[in-house]
């Protein structure tokens, strides 16, 4: 999370934190900018679509280790094929594990999923 003055802070709900915020090997608060917030947005948007937390299998009650593994170690997040191509593309770009490859805020402002909502 970016706080006043552009400083990075790791406060928040762990279930919505990005891999680079949770992985001790990847902690680079000064470098990642808004990438962690973009990840969190993707988790929330997918959760709204599914009606449940999206990174853990439906019905599972994960412990801390399972949550960290789901965020940091699992393969790409499954995005339902029932969503529109724009929706799937938006969420996929938000939930890119590598923060260097993840979509940017500027990109998302022009993304077809967001532009479609504006109309």
From TrEMBL:
GO cellular component entries: cytoplasm
Domain Protein kinase: 1-114
MF (Gene Ontology): ATP binding; protein serine/threonine kinase activity
Domain of life of the source: Eukaryota
One Pfam family in the UniProt entry: Pkinase
InterPro entries: Kinase-like_dom_sf (IPR011009), Prot_kinase_dom (IPR000719), Ser_Thr_kinase (IPR053235)
Annotated protein name in UniProt: Protein kinase domain-containing protein
Protein's organism: Arabis nemorensis
């Amino acid at each position: 999370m970016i706080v006043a003055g552009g400083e990075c802070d790791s406060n928040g709900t762990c279930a919505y934190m990005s891999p680079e915020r949770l992985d001790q090997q990847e902690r680079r608060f000064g470098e990642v900018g808004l990438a962690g917030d973009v990840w969190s947005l993707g988790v929330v948007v997918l959760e709204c679509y599914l009606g449940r937390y999206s990174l853990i299998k439906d019905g599972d009650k994960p412990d801390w280790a399972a949550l960290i593994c789901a965020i940091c170690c699992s393969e790409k997040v499954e995005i339902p094929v029932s969503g529109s191509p724009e929706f799937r593309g938006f969420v996929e770009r938000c939930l890119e594990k590598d923060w260097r490859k993840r979509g940017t805020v500027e990109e998302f402002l022009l993304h077809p999923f967001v532009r479609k909502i504006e109309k």
